Amino acid sequence: MKINYRTINQRLNVEIDVESAKDGFKKLSEFQEVFDESCCGLCKNQELQFVVRTVEGNDYYELKCKKCFGKLAYGQHKSGGSLFPKRKNQDGTFDSENKGWHKWNGNGS
Ligand SMILES: [Zn+2]
């Protein structure tokens, strides 16, 4: 079966092919985690841009706010190559305030 899903901010519309309810759950969970960020975690602006930077052969996936230039970095799972938003502070605790959004800090992370 197919699932039609539209993101919270109405900007992306996808058709996801699923084999079962479990499969749909997995695919939606992955899609939502990566693409369903509705606004900047710092200034709440909804103009977000998907950015891929390549530095020394490594790709860095980020969402960037067009207003305050805050960004949300994505990590890559070691197996499967799927992405996840980095929402933790440097010390490993969950960033409950900004949900991982931060201003450029110059160290490439
Ligand atoms: Zn912003």
Strand order of the largest sheet: 3-4-5-6
Give the strand tally: 6
Secondary structure category = alpha+beta
Mean pLDDT: 92
Return residue spans where pLDDT drops below 50 for at least 5 consecutive residues: none
What Rg, in angstroms, do the CA atoms define? 15 Å
User: What ligand species are in this complex?
Assistant: zinc ion
The domain tally reads 2
Key phrases:
109 residues, alpha+beta, 2 domains, four-stranded antiparallel β-sheet, 6 strands, 14% helix, 32% strand, globular, binds zinc ion
Could you explain how this protein is built, in words?
The protein is an alpha+beta fold. The protein folds into two domains: 1-36; 40-109, no CATH class. Helix content is 14%, strand content 32%. A four-stranded antiparallel β-sheet has the order 3-4-5-6, covered by helices on one side. The protein has a two-stranded antiparallel ribbon with strand order 1-2. A hairpin with a 6-residue loop joins strand 5 (71-76) and strand 6 (83-85). It is globular and about 45 Å long. The relative contact order is 0.15. The structure holds zinc ion. Zinc ion binds next to loops.
